[in-house]
Every structure is written in structure tokens, then in C-alpha cells.
Amino acid sequence: MKLDILVIAVHPDDAELGCSGTILSHIAQGKKVGIVDLTRGELGTRGTPEIRVEEAEAAGQILGLSARENLGFRDGFFRNDEEHQTALIPAIRRYRPELVITNAVTDRHPDHGRASALVVDACFYAGLRRIETTDTDGSRQEAWRPKVIYHFIQDRYIRPDLIVDITGFWPRKKESILAYRSQFFDPENSEPASYISSPEFLEFIEARAEEYGHMIGVKYGEGFTVERTVGVRSLFDLL
Ligand SMILES: [Zn+2]
Predict the structure, then answer these.
(1) Would you say 157 and 108 are in contact if contact means Cβ atoms under 8 Å apart?
(2) What total of structural domains would you count in the chain?
(3) How much distance in Å is there from the Cα of 34 to the middle of ligand 1?
(4) Which of 16, 39, 41, 145 has the fewest beta carbons closer than 10 A?
(5) Which structural domain range is residue 206 located in?
(6) Does residue 237 lie within any of the structural domains?
(7) What's residue 186's pLDDT?
(8) Environment class of 169 (CB within 10 Å of its CB; exposed 0-12, middle 13-18, buried 19+)
(9) What is the mean pLDDT of residues 73-96?
(10) CA 27 to centroid of ligand 1, rounded, Å
């Protein structure tokens, strides 16, 4: 299945926290969007790998994704090396996305920056025809390189290169985040508290969206960085 946008993120819930408003807005524009989660987030303080996969499935339903899969890399211990690049290339070639969105280039959680570098390298190598891969049905895959890679901004503040207006999609973004019931604030959850399980964390997510929205004169926004220089046909294309 060919996708317009493939989001590749290291932990289930990263995509929802970082770019689910953008996912929703592009699906509303008729684009096909999917998510590849690299790990099951098994080192997270709360929940279990099984629960987190179920929660990711539920969040994907809320977003209206065309596909979602989990590559089962080891949370915390995956590396940007040949083993992991060659495991990721088949997913990029399977969905042939025009655009890839991935983790922040650097963040509080060290997995985020490492995953970001792994995704950038795998997207490049996916375009080299001499790297041969097969799909899940055993068929030989064609080389494919996405045109642009965007990095969403998750925990630590990064000055964005561009901001997507997600104003109409905020309530549904919040719903997709709360689908990860084991991770975020739930008064009935008796598991140990974590960095993200306080009510203040959800307030911070909203404040960040308001801050980025404020920068472009709308209510809510999501910020991205992009390594490729932004090109326009008209100076008026930049709002
Ligand atoms: Zn994460």
C-alpha cells in the first residue's frame, strides 16, 4: 500500500505527542498516512509491551491511519547500525511515502535523537537499488527514497523551521494521546508515577501547541525542523 506520509517514531505514543494534529489535518486533506513504531516502549515505567501495542492500535483508529506496524526493536538498546537500517528499509520501501516524519533531532530521551538519525540514514539507503530487500510476501522490493524528512518537536524546546496549524484538530489529538491510558494521568492507575503521568504533563502538551500556534497567529500548532532547505514558487506561499 502506497502512503503519502509515513511517520516513523521510536516509542508508541511519540507520534501522537509530536505530530498527531498534522496527521489528522493531512488525512482530512485526503492524504494516506501510516505509522511505523520502532519499539514497543518496553522500558517505560508504566504498562506492558502488550498493553502499549493495544493502546497504539486504539490511537491509530482515532487518527484514521491507513497502516500501523511495530518493528520490535529493543527499547533503549537499538542502534543506528547496519542491522537496524536493513530492518527499517523494507518498511520504507513497502509504503513508498512521499514524506517521512520522524522523532526530534535531539530531545530529553536519548532514544529520540538516535532514532531520528537511524531514520534519516535508512531513508537514504532505501533509495539505493544495490541494497536488496524482500517484502513480507517474499517479493523483491524496488528502491524508494522519500522526498523530504520532517522532524517533529516533542519534549525539549527546539525553534521550529515550520509550524503546521492544527487548530481544528486539537480535541482529537488529545483523544489520541489519552488512548495510551497506561502512560498518562489516570487517577485510578496505581502504578508508579512517571515523567509523563502527571496532569501537569498534559497541560504542558497543550501549552506547547498554543505556543507554536501563537508563533503563526493561530490557536494550536505543531512545530517541525527540516534539514532540506525550504523552497517556494511564490514568496506568498509562506503564511
Ligand atoms: Zn519517546
Answers:
(1) no
(2) 1
(3) 18
(4) 145
(5) 5-229
(6) no
(7) 82
(8) buried
(9) 98
(10) 23
